[in-house]
Amino acid sequence: MEDHLAALAEAARRTRESAPKITAWGRHLAGVFEAGGKLLACGNGGSAAEAQHLTGELVGRFRHERRALPAIALHADTSATTAIVNDYGDHEIFARQVHAHGRPGDVLVCLSTSGSSQNVVAAAKAAHELGVTTWALTGPAPNPLAALCDDAVTVEAPTVATVQEMHLALVHGLCAALDDALGVTA
């Protein structure tokens, strides 16, 4: 346990330098929502849980009351995802939904601890075709997803668990920055 907490503290120390980037993402996202756009999010396994956590904070609320914000976790529609896997293959599970829901000016947040998940990389490529801004939260760099996206925060950590825990902290940081940009107060 002590080793795990020490690794988490070290990852947090390293990731702290990303705070200005996450603040900028929050400001950008506020503008997207004010213009009528939406956020899409995708990931596999634990990263899917983080994607859904992010969209839940936006559709619901983070710390304070505010209007519901349009956000979709692309893995959460089981009927669509299973139909896409059946008809197009698992590599298209998110890309097909990006084509359905994404519009120019929207944001796609891609989460991947490896940064090499084929279906998440395919979603980022689909987003670029549509003019959707792409942000990645990944594990250590370099990786294909971070290189492909418009912007990325890479977490240098020794285990997938620590990367995922840092992703949750970054998701909460993005929500706080967004609420600040929207002028949401207690």
UniProtKB/TrEMBL annotation:
Domain SIS: 29-184
Protein name: SIS domain-containing protein
Annotated source species: Amycolatopsis melonis
